[in-house]
Design brief:
Oligomer: heterodimer
Structural class of chain B: mainly beta
Strand content of chain A: 5-15%
CATH topology of the largest domain in chain B: SH3 type barrels
Radius of gyration of chain B: 17 Å
Structural class of chain A: mainly alpha
Number of strands of chain B: 14
Strand content of chain B: 35-45%
Distance between the termini of chain B: 24 Å
Radius of gyration of chain A: 29 Å
Order of helices and strands of chain B: EEEEEEEEHEEEEEEH
Number of strands of chain A: 1
CATH architecture of the largest domain in chain B: Roll
Number of domains of chain B: 2
CATH class of the largest domain in chain B: Mainly Beta
Number of helices of chain A: 1
Largest interface: A-B, 13 and 33 residues
Order of helices and strands of chain A: HE
């Protein structure tokens, strides 16, 4: 029973440390981002010549 | 080689700025770190940095630092006049461009429809507080890394970065040779 408790505690500590490590890795990561080019807006009111 | 001084300014990869401390001139204290470098491919200019706090128990990222609020981008630190340059996180978020995406890994396609490879880094020419986009480092399909000259304007969508065909002609294999080709073009 005691052995099981110790093993559980060790597993919990390992999980917490792994979580902290992954959290730090995420925080350390950075990248180069770029502004997306806005698509040319469609002018729905533009005059369109339609030959009938 | 991380950065090279040229006639106009210092040539460096944008990724070199990631993690660089941001220091306030008035208090000489580090107020944040650079998380992401944000560029505008349409105007070929860097426009700011997203930020993160420093240390293990730092709070949430303070927001966005526009380049107008930067005093200088140095070799080892980004200098701002004071902590106020970072400002209130809510105000800073509003100054951040609404639509931006990760440029790294984006496919670079020429105007005639040929894929040059994927963008692996952006080359900046830093002069005081300004940073112009002067090149793109491209991972070609054969695995080689080449640096091509950035056009004055390169449209970017979630799918691809569109560049002129002729930029592939002046491709350089490293920062030093890229600086050489840049200087030849400028002179």
């Amino acid at each position: 029973m005691e052995l099981l408790l110790v093993a559980g505690l060790v597993a919990l500590i390992v999980l917490v440390l792994l979580g902290l490590y992954l959290f730090q890795q995420e925080r350390r990561s950075g990248t180069v981002r770029a502004v997306l080019t806005a698509p040319a807006s469609r002018d729905d009111d533009a005059d369109v010549d339609v030959e009938s | 080689m991380n950065s090279i001084d040229s006639g106009g300014g210092r040539i460096t990869r944008a990724s070199e700025l990631i993690g660089r401390p941001i220091i306030a001139l008035d208090s000489a204290t580090q107020v944040a770190e650079v998380k992401d470098v944000v560029v505008d491919t349409q105007s070929a200019q860097a426009i700011g940095f997203t930020l993160r706090g420093r240390g293990l128990l730092a709070g949430p990222a303070p927001g966005f630092l526009p380049l107008e609020a930067v005093h200088a981008i140095g070799r080892d630190a980004v200098m701002v006049a004071s902590r106020d340059a970072i400002g209130d996180p809510d105000d800073a978020r509003s100054a951040r461009p609404a639509e931006e995406e990760d440029l790294i890994g984006k496919e670079a396609v020429s105007v005639t429809g040929s894929s040059l490879g994927t963008v692996s880094d952006v080359i900046l020419e830093i002069d005081g507080p300004s940073a112009a986009v002067v090149g793109y480092e491209i991972a070609a399909q054969n695995g080689n890394l080449v640096i091509v000259r950035a056009p004055e304007s390169a449209p970017l969508s979630p799918d691809a970065l569109v560049v002129p065909d002729e930029i592939a002609l002046g491709a350089a294999s490293g920062l030093a040779s890229f600086r050489g080709s840049l200087e030849r073009t400028q002179s």
